[in-house]
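Subject: sequence -> structure tokens, single chain

Hey, anyone have a minute? Need the predicted structure for the following. Not urgent.
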Amino acid sequence: MADPKNRATAAAILPLVGGADNVTSVVHCMTRLRLGLRDRALVDDEALKALPSVMGVVEDDTYQIVLGPGTVARVTPEFEALVAEERTDTSAPGPGENGESAAPVPAPSPDHALTAAELASQGAALKAARKAKNATPFKLFLRRIANIFVPLIPALIGCGIIAGLNGLLINLGWLPAVTPALAAIASGFMALIAVFVGFNTAKEFGGTPSLGGAVAAIIVFPGVAKIDAFGNTLSPGQGGVLGALAAAVLAVHVEKWCRKWVPESLDVLVTPTLTVLLSGLVTIFGLMFVAGEVSTAIGTGADWLLTHTGAFAGLVLGGLFLPLVMLGLHQALIPIHTTLIEQQGFTVLLPILAMAGAGQVGCAAAVYLRLRHNHSIRNTIKSALPAGILGVGEPLIYGVSLPLGRPFVTACAGGAAGGAFVGLFSMLGDKVGSTAIGPSGWALFPLLQGNHGLGTTIAVYAGGLLVGYLVGFAATYYFGFTKTMLAELNTPAAEAAADPEKPKEPVAA
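Reply:
Had a minute. Here:
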């Protein structure tokens, strides 16, 4: 039975994205409803942002509506059902059919305060300009890599939390008859993650998914331990997700090559056989060894970096993560996180990168206090701040800090400070890791794991968040605004100009 609240949310979103006929694909990740659209001009961005359940919108290779963790997984099937019910063969013209862009946001002046809607428009314009400028082949490739791993995040999170719970029970000596079952539940997915990566890789690169999964399955098959590859004895799992990705990409190319010359009458027999055989041989006698060396180097490099330069590495990683997100380069880290989780049971990089969100939260709190007369921006912050604390930072980034400019830089300073704090403790021997990727902020607590007790791990991560909050707040409060910016954004006269019907507030003497 459909949930009325989620059904209502889906019903409110559908007409604002141009109706069922304008929707070509519907998927979701951890926090976003990702839509493929025929005509972007039919979307009413401002009306979507005004919906109570929508935290923000992001335009990338798909149109992404931020609904938050949990909510998006419930709204998506309702949305898909509505699309299936309402789709017709013809579509009516809608607003924006001439493809005209939104009206430019006027430059702020002392007589006009920027509202939340104007800031959001500026944020969307910055996002669109960045996308047009940076749609390079390399970044498009990174998006494809992300499309391979993002569907695996829910399983990583679920298994990671179960692994953490199992570890806690073992440490406490509770339920010894249950912990082996929990260990099997938590470890089963990770033992076969290469197969899922191979399946998704082939699907993303235009091949047959099952063939990609079949070739990747060779990597985790126990029988490879009996193979001597040029003097090197293989180990099950050698090469991990990187080997699976490479093997599946190779399988796609072999499959496409076969389709060019194999007669149609023999295609169903010859093409799958040659694809698995040729790709499998190359995987066994080449890719597994090479990918294994690369995977080992990643783990060794991450350990060395945090052990010897932890504070500095944390400063750089935490400070640059928000700009990496802006450029789309953060997607290159997804296979690295997954490799570390596969090797060590947790990724030491994610808790440091999560400090960028802490700096963003501290920044937003400072903007809220500094712009006490701009109720429009303050309302945006009030609605987006809880999501930011839980690690969903897009509404604050695109709705507040990025269009304001300087606060985005001071938010990065907060992230750098928090990252340096966590990195410092890595140098001291207390490594903090996450058993899954996806969540950050407070939502990362259930996934924390380290090389010492859980209490120490939680304390270090919480300390990093606190440092990120405080430095992000202080840097923004004292350095995030020029006098001109404050005059434009935060005067009683300007607020009255933005909303003429609202009575002016008295100015304290």
